[in-house]
Amino acid sequence: MTGNRLSRSGLRRHHQARHTDSIGYPEFIQVVFLLMPDFSMAFEVWFVKFINDVKLRGG
To answer: Containing domain of residue 31, as a range?
Structure first.
């Protein structure tokens, strides 16, 4: 009976550890949103360049 109780608390502790690992996910999204303006600007520049290249080739 005590052995069963011990393994249960061990499983619970493992679950809590995994939960704290996933807490960094919102922070990751925040970082992405912070970098988003630069990324979208760079993408826009690349996209315009890509469209111009296609137009030059007669596509």
So the answer is: 2-57
